[in-house]
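Bumping my old thread because nobody answered last time. Still need a sequence for this structure:
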């Protein structure tokens, strides 16, 4: 019951935050989007995709990419472009850690997170798709750290990227709806965003608990 209560608070907070941004008439990054991205056709879409991928690869919040995608292009196209940008950024960081910057990535992860990431690395190595999916569905954690850790764990790219795409999708829809709702009079988009976020977090928590239960049974 406590977990359900937290999800309800999180959903209501998201909707309230969206309403506040809409009332203020501004949100981070929207001026840049208004000037260079919106109503620019294919050029604007390409620029958004490249900028969003670079931002995600550098470790900026992927939810922000989705928010600006919804603000610029609406819920549907914004979701698709933001998801593509997030996945491209994920692939770039994963490949960097795996092929080029292994020593640098190891220093960064060891310095900032230390032993806390060891269980995550073990889970990724044991079940790349399931562990990645569960972690992506949660609105906590560090997207860049998981990308780098996936590259360092030596897992196959396909299950990691496929699970990332699937796990990115719910929150991408949520924040694209939020961005759309901020730009127009879209109270229902904000409410739907809160509900979807609660559902995605609930699924992520269920997957994590299931994985932990499975490891406990294996060790019994």
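Sorry it took so long. Here it is:
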């Amino acid at each position: 019951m406590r977990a359900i209560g937290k999800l309800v608070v999180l959903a209501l907070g998201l909707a309230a935050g969206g309403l506040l941004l809409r009332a203020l008439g501004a949100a981070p990054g929207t001026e840049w989007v208004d000037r260079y991205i919106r109503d620019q056709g294919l050029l604007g879409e390409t620029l958004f995709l490249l900028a969003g991928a670079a931002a995600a690869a550098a470790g900026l919040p992927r939810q922000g990419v989705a928010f600006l995608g919804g603000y610029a292009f609406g819920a549907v196209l914004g979701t698709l472009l933001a998801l593509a940008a997030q996945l491209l950024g994920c692939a770039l960081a994963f490949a960097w850690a795996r092929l080029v910057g292994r020593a640098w990535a190891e220093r960064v992860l060891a310095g900032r997170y230390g032993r806390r990431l060891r269980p995550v690395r073990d889970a990724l190595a044991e079940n790349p798709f399931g562990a990645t999916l569960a972690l992506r569905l949660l609105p906590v954690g560090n997207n860049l750290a998981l990308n780098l850790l996936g590259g360092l764990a030596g897992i196959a790219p396909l299950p990691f990227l496929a699970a990332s795409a699937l796990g990115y999708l719910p929150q991408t829809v949520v924040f694209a709806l939020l961005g759309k709702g901020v730009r127009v009079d879209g109270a229902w988009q904000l409410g739907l965003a809160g509900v979807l976020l609660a559902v995605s977090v609930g699924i992520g928590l269920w997957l994590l608990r299931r994985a932990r239960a499975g490891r406990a049974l294996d060790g019994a």
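Residues 14-214 form one domain. Let me know if any region looks off to you.
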